[in-house]
Amino acid sequence: MQSVVIVLLGMVGMLFGWFVYSKFIAEKIFKMDDNFVTPAHELEDGVDYVPTNKVVLWGHHFTSVAGAAPIVGPAIAVYWGWVPAVLWVVFGTIFFAGVHDMGALWASARNKGKSMGALSESVIGKRTRALFMIVVFLVLLMVNAVFGVVIAKSFINSPNAVFPAWSAIVVALVIGQLLRKKVSLIPLCFIGVGILYYTIYLGSSMPIMLPDELFGLSANANWIIILFVYAAIASLLPVWMLLQPRDFINGMQLLVGLVLLYGAVFVSMPDITAPAFNTQTALDTPSIIPLLFVTIACGAVSGFHGIVSSGTSSKQLNKETDGRFVGYLGAVGEGMLALITLVAVSGAALAVSPEEWHEIYSHLGAGSVGAFVNGGANLIESGWGISNEIASTLLAVMVVLFAGTTMDSGVRLQRYIIQEWGDIYNIKVIKNGVIATLIAVLSCLLLAFGAGGASGSGGMIIWPLFGSTNQILASLTLLVISVILIKANRPARYTLIPMSFVLVMAFFAGVIKLGEYYQQGNWLLVILDVVVLVISVLVMLEAWSVIAKHRRENALKPSE
Predict the structure, then answer these.
(1) Residue 400, Cα to own-chain centre: how many angstroms?
(2) Strands 213-214 and 217-218, sheet pairing
(3) Which end of the chain is more exposed for a tag (fewer CB within 10 A), N or C?
(4) Residue 217: in which H helix or E strand, if any?
(5) Beta-carbon contacts of residue 35 (< 8 Å; ≥ 6 apart)
C-alpha cells in the first residue's frame, strides 16, 4: 500500500511541474515565441536540420537522454533509503531537470542550433568555449564507450533481448520511410509498437548468442565492435530515416512499459520493504551528501541532457514553443521512469521482507539493473498475470533499446563536436561528416580496447568519473542559460539556484572521489578529475566576470 502513496505523491508533483511550473518558465522567463524561425527551418538540410512533429521529436529526445541511467542511478541510490531518493527524483525533475533540458533546447534554438559548448563562446568567451567542449567530449566519450559495454553484456546475459533489439531497427527504417511519405502517425505508432512487442514475445523463445570466441575475440568484444559499426552508420543517416522513428517507437514502448508498471502498482499495491533511511549501511559506504546527487543524475538532472537538447533536438525543433513539450515533458518522462524504478527495487516485488532486501542490497551498487528487471517483472506478473519470463524479456529489451538509442545519438553528438572543432579551428578534414564519425568511433574503440584489452571494457576504467563530471556539466549548462537571461535583463534565479546547488554537490563529490583515486594510486583518474574540477572553476570565474561587467554597464546607463 505504501507504494501507491509514493506513486500518487510523485505523480501529483510532476503534474504540477508540467501544467504550472514549466508553463511559467516557458512563457515568462524564456518567452518562447511561435513566430521565431527555428534552425530546423532556417538551416534545413534534410540530414541533421529537419523540422519534426513535436511528438516524434519528444520520442527521440526522451529515449536519447534516458538510456539506462534513470534505472541504474535510482536502483543504486535506494541503498541510502527510499525517502531521499524519491525526494530528489521528484523535486529534481520539477525544478532542475525540466528547466535545464528545456533551457538548453531554447538557448540552442535561439542560436542556430549550436551546442552548449560552441554557444558558450558568444555568451561568455572563447576560453570558456574551449574548456566547455573538453568536458562535453569527455562525457560523450564515457557514455558511448560504456554503453557499448552495457549493451554487449545485456546481449550476453539476456540473449532473448537480441532479436527484438535488432528488429526494432528494421521496424524504424520502414516507419521512417512511411512518415516521409506523409502516412498518418497514429496508425504507424500502433502498428510499430505492436510489431515491437510481438518481436519481444518471439524473442522470449528465440535466444541469439554469438560464439564464445570469434576472430580471436570474445563474444563481448565482438558485440562491442558490431554496435559501434552500427552506431557509425546510424549517425550518418538522415535523422528522419532511422534516428527519429527508432527513438519514437522506443518512446512509445516505454510508455506501454510505464503503464504496465504503474498499473501493476495500483492493482497489487505492494508494501515497501526497503528502509526509509538505511541505518545498516556497510562501513565503507560513502556519505549520502553529496553522492546521492551524482548517483541519481538522469531522473533528476543530468548534464548529458543538455548535450542532446543543444545537439540533435534543437536542430529538429519545428516551433520554438515545442521546446516545452520536448524538453520539459521529456524530463518528466525520465522522472516517472526513475520513480517507478524506486518502487520496483524498494517493495515486496523484489524482496518480501526487510531482511531479504538487506541481503540483496548488502552494499552500495549491489542492486542496479538486475534488481529493476527482477522486481519489475515480479510486479508486472502479480498485477497483470503476464508470465515472469515475458515480463523479464520486456524490461530487459527496454533497457537495451534505451541504451542503444543513447549510443546512436551519442556518436552523432560526438561527430557534431568534432565538426564544430573543425569550424572553430579551420581544420577542413574534420568538417567532413564521415571523417568526424570515424574519429568519434575510433576514439571510443581506442578507449574500449586500448585501456581494457581484448575484452573491450576499457570505458569502465574512466566511468567512475562520470557522476561528478556529468553533474558539473549540468551546472555549466545552467550557468550559460543564466548568463543569457541576465544579458537579456530577465530573472535568472530559476536557473542560478539549481546551478549553484548542483555545482556544489558535484564539485564536493569530485573532491571526495579525487581523494579515493589518490589513495588507490589511480593516476589516470586523478589527472582527469583534477582537469574537470579546474575547468569548472575557470568557467565559473569567466562567467562571473561577464555578469559583473554587464551589471556595471547597466549601472552606468542613464535612467529613463
Answers:
(1) 14
(2) antiparallel
(3) C
(4) strand 217-218
(5) none
How far is residue 430's CA from residue 415's CA, in Å, rounded to a whole number?
Answer: 9
- pLDDT tens, position by position, 142-184: 888 888 888 888 888 888 888 988 998 999 999 999 988 888 8
d(C-alpha 149, C-alpha 449), whole Å: 11
Helix, coil or strand: residue 272: strand
Give the whole-angstrom CA distance, residue 124 versus residue 286: 36
List the beta bridge partners of residue 213: 218
DSSP assignments along 446-501, one per residue: IIIIIIHGGG--THHHHGGGHHHHHHHHHHHHHHHHHHHHHHTT---HHHHHHHHH
C-alpha cell at 225: 565492435
* Cα(478)–Cα(170) distance, integer angstroms: 38
- On whether the CB atoms of residues 38 and 320 are closer than 8 A, the answer is yes
CA distance 50 to 317: 8
Residues 513, 464: contact at Cβ < 8 Å? yes
Residue 134, judged by CB atoms within 10 A of its CB (0-12, 13-18, 19+), counts as middle
Mean of pLDDT over the chain? 91
CA distance 114 to 131: 16
In angstroms, rounded to a whole number, what is the distance separating the alpha carbons of residues 242 and 235? Answer: 9
Contact 420, 117 (CB under 8 A): yes
Q: What is the pLDDT of residue 300?
A: 93
The phi, psi pair for 214, rounded to 5°, reads -145, 125
Q: Could you give the CA distance from residue 413 to residue 446 in angstroms, rounded to a whole number? A: 18
Residues facing 52 on adjacent strands: 317
- 214 forms beta bridges with 217
Q: 348-370, pLDDT tens digit by residue?
A: 989 989 999 999 999 998 877 88
Amino acid of residue 457: S
- Residue from 259, 272, 307 nearest 64 by CA: 307
C-alpha neighbours within 13 Å on the C-beta side of residue 250: 39
CA-closest candidate to residue 95, choices 271, 410, 432, 331: 331
363: left (phi over 0), alpha (psi -120 to 50) or beta: beta
Count other Cβ atoms within 10 Å, centred on residue 550. Answer: 14
Q: Which of 410, 454, 398 is nearest to 227 (CA)?
A: 410
CA dihedral of 294, 300, 305, 309, whole degrees rounded to 10: -150
**What is the distance between the alpha carbons of residues 267 and 384, in angstroms, rounded to a whole number?**
8
Contact 51, 41 (CB under 8 A): yes
Give the span between the Cα atoms of 98 and 105, in whole angstroms: 11
Distance CA 28, CA 31 (A): 5
**CA-to-CA dists, residue 105 to 82, 102, 231, angstroms:** 32, 5, 24
Eight-state DSSP code of residue 261: H
Q: How many CB atoms lie within 10 A of CB 58?
A: 22
